[in-house]
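Changelog-linked ticket: zinc ion example.
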Amino acid sequence: MIGWRFTKPILLAALAVTLLSGTHHVKPKPGEPLANQLFGAKKAGSKQKPQVYGYYDNGCVAGGEQLPETGPTWQAMRLSRNRNWAHPEMIDFIKRLSVEATKHGWAGLYIGDMTQPRGGPMTSSHASHQIGLDADIWMLPPKRLDLTIAERESLSSISVRTDDQRNINSNWTPAHMEILKAASKDKMVDRIFVAAAVKIEMCKRAGKDRDWLAKIRPLYGHNYHFHVRLKCPKGSPKCISQTPIANISKGDGCDKSLTWWVTDYLNPPKVVPKKKTKKKTTTAKPKPRPRKAREFIMADLPRQCVGVLKSK
Ligand SMILES: [Zn+2]
């Protein structure tokens, strides 16, 4: 018999999946605006107490703060996108890490996409970055922090790995390693996404102090920037945490699950086709595909996001 002790985690997991994948059974009404158009049109954060609602790829942020476009140790890039907003904890983190960067020979940090003023789904790129707790930081070491607005539209970052995705290239420096290490050790950081080749290099060089490596997570892309994700901040009970890394990866993560990204991921092993079995005829309707972030309507988001959108 399967007791409540066992079914409870299953039910909770099912509930979490329902919460995270949006309420795709709510049909959009004809002409109903998409959530990304509504959130994308907001020019400033809501005048509310800072508060996170939902999950990194399904939610919004109240009381979002704008990262000043230029500071003593940073510049926000691509200002035309108006994505230099975040929860105040992220603004504080960017300031901390950019000061750290100056200790390793960089003028500071170039900051890419953070969040829209009130978060929510975006009209282009990123499924996440919705709750003010994600930030993309350029791999390009800034030499100057007086770039004009136009320069910040045209300048590109640099890739730190080879085109075949297997190794770091000559753009990678020990300073990159030190800055990522400092970011990973920051108490507010939940995880950091980098190209697998970057993590492989860091695993090789880390030495004995390596617990912090667990937070460095391999992911496709992430060779022009690294992506920092913060934990749910205090005072945001409706913020949904991501599965702890310890539950999905062992130790420092410098294992087969990492090398998979430069072996099977790049060269998938051939799958021997199974013998054909007779197709079962079924009358059950196929399940509707969950909507993607760019297709969300307001009903897909936590209900508090309606208030965040409407607030002054
Ligand atoms: Zn990102």
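Closing comment: Example verified and attached. The mean pLDDT is 90. The radius of gyration is 21 Å.
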